[in-house]
């Protein structure tokens, strides 16, 4: 069975890889909208993380990074060799989790992954790296599960922080762009509801029509050599710098600054152990 500690947003049933009644979710907060959503689609629910561990084989630790040390302390005594422990916590290394769990289980199977909120509409992007004791089959099982809500691929662990900044946080940038488009429309007299819908449709269609270029690795930026913007006359746009476009949103150094940044919100007593 599969265990989920927490999942954000309005839940949309995934493709039938695993029956809902074989999933157990746990949370100490019974008033969360997520709890109601899980129950509606037939997922078992408990307020006990320990009960979840005992009834499951694959454990998703879908909590904020500062909570990981306390979760491991709580459920560690119940971890067995059969368990696959999947951590979705940003910045928390495989080795730190293995070190903590090894006091309870000599060979804990640990997988570190990073996904994003579009999983709730089956359009998520997930990458993962396997730990010392997790084998290829364990990774393939995770791929099968996460591919039901988007796409999933394996990477080296040292790339996961970069993925956290790119696709993990990427949806927020898309929503920021949508807000900016809608605000511009409202400023020009459009009703906000219509402006948001038009902006969303523009983004959606642009990405959908560009998937062929994306798979070929072509550049979609206005100043890129592969995909010039037909709306801009001549070639003056070729001289634009990232700082002059999108309010600096496309600046490589500014964008990269957040990638690989150490977690600052971990408890000080655990920071050295759990931050890579």
TrEMBL record:
One GO MF term attached to the UniProt entry: pyrroline-5-carboxylate reductase activity
Any matching Pfam family: P5CR_dimer
Stored InterPro entries: 6-PGluconate_DH-like_C_sf, NAD(P)-bd_dom_sf, P5C_Rdtase_cat_N, P5CR_dimer
Top-level lineage group: Eukaryota
Domain Pyrroline-5-carboxylate reductase dimerisation residue range list: 157-206
An example Gene Ontology biological process: L-proline biosynthetic process
Stretches for region Disordered: 257-276
Spans traversing the lipid bilayer: none
Domain Pyrroline-5-carboxylate reductase catalytic N-terminal positions: 16-91
Biased composition (Basic and acidic residues): 261-276
Family: Belongs to the pyrroline-5-carboxylate reductase family.
Protein name as it appears in the record: Pyrroline-5-carboxylate reductase
Organism: Otus sunia
